[in-house]
Amino acid sequence: MAFFRVEKLVKQFGGLTAVNNVSFEVKQGEIFGLIGPNGSGKTTTFNMISGTYPPTSGKVFFKGKEIQGRKPHRICHLGIGRTFQVVKPLGRMTVLDNVIAASFSRENRMRGAREQAEKTIAFCGLDPVSGTLAKSLPIAGRKRLEIARAMATRPELLLLDETAAGLNPTESLEAVELIKKIRENGTTIVIIEHIMRVIMTISDRIHAINFGQTIAEGTPSDVAANPQVIEAYLGTDYA
Amino acid sequence: MKKNAVPLLVLAVLAVFPLVVTSDYFLHLMILFLLWVVIGSSWNVLAGYTGQVSFGHAAFFGVGAYTAGLLFQHLQISPWWGMALGGIVAALIGLPFGAICFPLRGAYFALASLALGEGIRHIATISESFTGGMMGIMIMPSFVSKIPYYYIALALSALSVLSIRLVIRTKPGYYFVSIREDQDAAESLGIDTTLYKNVSLAISSFWTGMAGAFYMNYMGFVDPHVVFSLHDYSVMAILVAIVGGVGTIYGPAVGAFIMVAVQEFFRSGFFGLFDYLGRVTGAPAFASLSEVVRQAHVLGFGILVVVVILFLPNGIVGDWEKIRRNVFRIQPTR
Questions:
Q1: What is the pLDDT of residues B116-139, one digit of tens each?
Q2: Lowest CB count within 10 Å: A43, A83, A190, B217, which one?
């Protein structure tokens, strides 16, 4: 039984097929990269997994259970956390309160939720800003808060949507360190990323899609050498 | 404990108020103030904390009042029992309404709440055999003195504020604010947004219904245009919260005090000052001035809200630091 598997996922928005027959399997404990040019359907795939909208057809399996079409809050309780590409901080709450709100998914009591949140904040290196309002964080802090919040729901599978986008080189290096630390902690990760330096160094395997369809899957070096991937990113001249 | 010093002090002052001030006029104003603490705080749970703006709280207020009145009229059950039921019936009206509207996002709830308030007002008006229609319901008040009513209202407002405070500082409160701030993020954090919006509505409509049932007991008379009034209740609830501070625990209480004072200021023409001056001096100008002030009631509310929104967008409690800095010239302690 696979830890996590999507099978023939299809999403149509009216006449537009955003994701067309995408299947992949993620092993427990790995970092699985999802790449593709802009508009290739990566975030749509995430949205179908996390329940933002149901797939037109296809299935999602998590620990042997079929989970497609369930509501986002149910998916969260099953143990799948996610971050958003366009960050969604709870602006008029402090960083600590943001993470406490997330901790309540596993804890009903205030004290337990608070302890859990403080631990998560320390783990993600947000303690210097834990009393700051989320809306006054710079972008690197907001991206980090997205991760901290998702981690506070104690996911077994974490979906990261472009957590290094918009960061400067130092910050993106720190983000990579954090992602590695999360994996070492036992959380499986599926990551969407545009910055090749990031995704090529941290992924165990990569799945590449273009126009909603799978074009390659394999180790980072395999995928980087794949002519279809090069064509999708750089054009036919380089393939 | 220092944090609770101010509310406790206010509560102590309110508790001894009737012993010091025996004037029925001021007791009546204080009862209205306490009533508005309940309604304003209730509205604030739903709109201020959960972000679901309601333009129809008169529906819950009126349903509470009618529950108490109708129980007495049809079944001769004391309207004080009706008070216990008023909140529950209001919440029961709220729940199916919430179940229909809350899966939708955006302005739909606000628009539907407006329709709910107006719809129920019409229902109360046309079902004459049941509600008495435009004739309304009249009951004999239980007490001649205003003092018992004052303490009941005080207990009601203290309990509502306390219970709301308790909810806001625990899991549901965090969930309410998360929903207000970002519904997608809230969903991704495991929050059943539809369920928690309904929880918020239930708390809000329950306390508003209790306030309505108290009103029935206190005033002894209700008719559809009084208790289902869009202007006097639905909109006033919003003003109370905005002036005091949306999304703060004690904001609506402060707002209630100010709004009741301002309303009385206009209703009485500068608390009767112009009438008094008119009598003393015999100048007809004062009488007409008094009349102008009375007529300017709605205009005055409008100006007050514009001023608050421009200069204190978070209300008096929400922008307290700002007021301290600019008005009292006190530097913040931190």
A1: 999 999 999 998 888 888 888 888
A2: A43
Which among A74, A98, A100, A161 is the top mutation candidate for probing chain B, defined by the most B β-carbons within 10 Å of its own β-carbon? A98
Residue B231 or A174, more confident:
A174
For residue B138, the cross-strand partners are B221
Tell me which chain B residue has its CA closest to the CA of residue A100. B174
> Measured between alpha carbons, how far is B52 from A34 in angstroms, rounded to an integer?
37
B231 to chain A, any CB pair closer than 8 A? The answer is no
Domain residue ranges in chain A:
4-238
Q: Do A71 and B187 touch (CB under 8 A)?
A: yes
CB within 8 Å: A92 and B190: no
Number of Cβ atoms within 10 Å of the Cβ of B44: 31
Could you write out the three-class secondary structure of chain B?
Answer: CHHHHHHHHHHHHHHHHHHHCCCHHHHHHHHHHHHHHHHHHHHHHHHHHCCCCCCCHHHHHHHHHHHHHHHHHHHCCCHHHHHHHHHHHHHHHHHHHHHHHCCCCCCHHHHHHHHHHHHHHHHHHHCHHHHCHHHCEECCCCCCCCHHHHHHHHHHHHHHHHHHHHHHCCHHHHHHHHHHHCHHHHHHCCCCHHHHHHHHHHHHHHHHHHHHHHHHHHHCEECHHHHCCHHHHHHHHHHHHHHHCCCCCCHHHHHHHHHHHHHHHHHCCCCCHHHHHHHHHCCHHHHHHHHHHHHCHHHHHHHHHHHHHHHCCCHHHHCHHHHHHHCCCCCCCC
Domain A4-238 has CATH 3.40.640.10: no
CB-closest option in A72, A92, A108 to B187:
A72
Residues A160, A46 contacting (CB under 8 angstroms): no
Average pLDDT over residues B8-32: 91
What mean pLDDT is predicted for residues B98-104? Answer: 91
Burial of A37 from C-beta contacts in 10 A (0-12 / 13-18 / 19+): middle
Q: What does pTM read for this prediction?
A: 0.91
ipTM: 0.92
Q: What is the mean pLDDT of residues B12-36?
A: 91
The pLDDT, as a whole number, for residue B238 is 92
Say if B192 is an interface residue toward chain A (CB within 8 Å): yes
Q: Among A105-109, A160-164, B274-278, where is mean pLDDT lowest?
A: B274-278
pLDDT at A239 exceeding the cut of 70 = no
Tell me A133's DSSP state. B
